[in-house]
Specification:
3 domains, Nucleotidyltransferase, domain 5, single chain, eight-stranded mixed β-sheet, six-stranded mixed β-sheet, Rossmann fold, alpha/beta
Length: 544
């Protein structure tokens, strides 16, 4: 009997074509439907570099991974290069769409080209199946396929709009560590809740490490059992036949950093980071206690009575680019502890002071230091005039050195601190010392991530291209602040009490009434046309 083909392709079964299966074929069909590993190793073919088209033979770790992907709803894979990650994923997805009805699989990668290459491999594997194992083909395009059982596969780049309008049953995110942080965050906030709201929907994430970013965060939480993902790690050692000699050859070709990242699956910070890679990898993060009351706010410790806090802020224009940010640090004792942080790149400058004032008051009237470059001076003016925040810190030049001081009663200098080359250089050196000697405790993921991309560019440290350093710059200013005598005075309870008294006296001095001749009192004062007039005992009227 002549079998009709899909669009003339002899390897594809057409919709509506009914085949009479033998008893053995029925048995095989059932066995394949129940065991994805059996299906993969007997019927799934791929094109290899050395041997061309051949039926796959899974490594032991691949067999384990295929079963976990098939059975678990959420899986994350940290894989080295050339370990066969795509092969086992293609085999599992192929099994999933053949033996499940009405399922939609989305293959998304950092580039649409990458996801379509994965789809192309799946299509080759499908074409090589015997026709009695196939579903009839309804759609067979570069970017999507659809089968007679109403299961389909889409391929696109990772973006929040990529799968809009689709009810996704199985979401596969490949090379997720290479998706820019802002896109990853936008994607997850828009897509992830919908995917996980179902009772049978699945999500698979895989990638080679690429710095300490969102993938790093998800992997660490998976290992700690905090996010519901099953972690699978696949380094070069999982591939039979690879030896230490092979690994050394790869190290010579790739260099140490690339080798550790791409073969050993280690999360590496960027090259030339301010903080050493060893220390960066030792920093651990945890979920904040409060992070929903104010967008961008994360609180790790609530304020405690008797503790002293500093709030250091970096400001931006709120136009979706750089972030307005601040960190809140317990400075009562060493090690200092980051107890909260805030970052938001859309908050208007007129609103940011209210957030600083609210959190500053909450943390025992924290001492506030703000970078006054650019828009920072406006923020400071609002805090001082509109909110009358008293614990603002200022800076002034003393013997050609910038020093920290009070804002109230300030006769010279300026509120806040101006970030100059010298200030930043000193702050970076001090921050490095604080973090690497573990005298500053940091448990915030965003700060750690920014530290991992805060690199040396010429004579200056700054965020690498595509990254941000707003939170790090808050810590740089804090580190500069810790080297000031005024800071050590703030940390000493007795001196702090004297400083407070001096501050109150300065406020009183600023508010003293004008001197009045004789024994003039409020009863014999009056104001007319904006002028203060006093009636003195001689009945003369004195004008001030």
């Amino acid at each position: 009997m002549e079998i009709k083909k899909y669009l003339g392709n002899p390897k594809l079964k057409k919709v509506g074509m009914i085949l009479n299966l033998t008893e053995d074929q029925v048995t095989e069909f059932i066995k394949c439907s129940e065991d994805p590993v059996y299906f993969a190793e007997k019927y799934t073919k791929i094109i290899t570099l050395d041997h061309g088209l051949q039926t796959i033979k899974l490594y032991p770790f691949q067999r384990d991974a295929v079963r976990k992907i098939a059975n678990d709803r959420r899986v994350i894979i940290k894989a080295g290069r050339q370990v066969g990650k795509t092969t086992m994923v293609v085999a599992t997805l192929l099994w999933y769409i053949i033996f499940n009805e009405d399922k939609t699989v989305a293959i998304l990668a950092n580039k649409a080209k990458t996801s379509r290459e994965i789809l192309a491999r799946l299509k080759i594997a499908y074409e090589e199946l015997p026709l009695w194992l196939q579903q009839g083909v309804k759609v067979w395009n570069k970017g999507d396929i659809e089968l007679e059982n109403n299961s389909r596969v889409l391929a696109d780049s990772t973006a929040s709009t990529a799968i809009r309008g689709f009810s996704i049953s199985f979401l596969y995110l490949d090379e997720f560590a290479f998706v820019p942080n802002n896109i990853a965050e936008e994607f997850f906030s828009a897509v992830y809740p919908t995917i996980t709201s179902g009772t049978t929907s699945k999500i698979l994430i895989s990638s080679t490490p690429n710095g300490m970013n969102h993938f790093y965060s998800m992997w660490n939480e998976a290992e700690a059992g905090k996010n519901g993902f099953t972690p699978i790690e696949a380094s070069w050692r999982e591939v039979p036949g690879r030896t230490e000699e092979w690994a050394e050859e790869q190290r010579r070709v790739l260099g140490d950093d690339k080798y550790l990242q791409e073969m050993e699956c280690e999360f590496q910070g960027s090259t030339g980071t301010l903080i050493s890679g060893f220390v960066l990898k030792s920093l651990t993060f945890r979920k904040p206690e409060i992070d929903a009351t104010v967008p961008g706010l994360a609180i790790y410790e609530r304020p405690m009575e008797g503790r002293v806090y500093a709030l250091v802020a970096d400001t931006a224009h709120g136009k979706g680019q750089d972030y307005s940010a601040f960190v809140i640090i317990d400075i009562a004792a060493v090690p200092y502890r980051v107890v909260g942080r805030y970052m938001n790149n859309t908050i208007p400058p007129v609103v940011f002071p209210s957030i600083i004032q609210k959190l500053g008051k909450y943390y025992n009237d924290a001492y506030v230091l703000i970078e006054n470059n650019d828009i920072g001076s406006q923020i400071l003016q609002s805090l001082f005039d509109d909110f009358e925040y008293e614990n603002l810190l200022s800076s002034m030049m003393v013997k050609k050195q910038l020093q920290l001081t009070w804002s109230v009663g300030m006769k010279k200098g300026e509120r806040g601190v101006r970030t100059t080359r010298a200030t930043k250089r000193i702050g970076c050196q001090l921050l490095k010392g604080l973090v690497e000697s573990y005298k500053l405790k940091i448990e915030d993921f965003d700060i750690i991530m920014q530290l991992s991309t805060f690199i040396n560019k010429g004579e200056n440290f700054q965020a690498e291209d595509g990254s941000h350093d707003d939170l790090v710059m808050c810590l740089v200013l804090f580190a500069w602040m810790t080297n000031q005598k005024f800071f050590s005075d703030l940390c000493n309870a007795n001196i702090r009490r004297k400083l407070f008294e001096q501050q109150m006296q300065a406020i009183e001095d600023e508010m003293l009434p004008l001197p009045v001749p004789g024994d003039a009192s409020m009863e014999n004062m009056f104001v007319a046309e904006g002028t203060v007039w006093v009636v003195v005992p001689s009945d003369e009227i004195v004008k001030f």
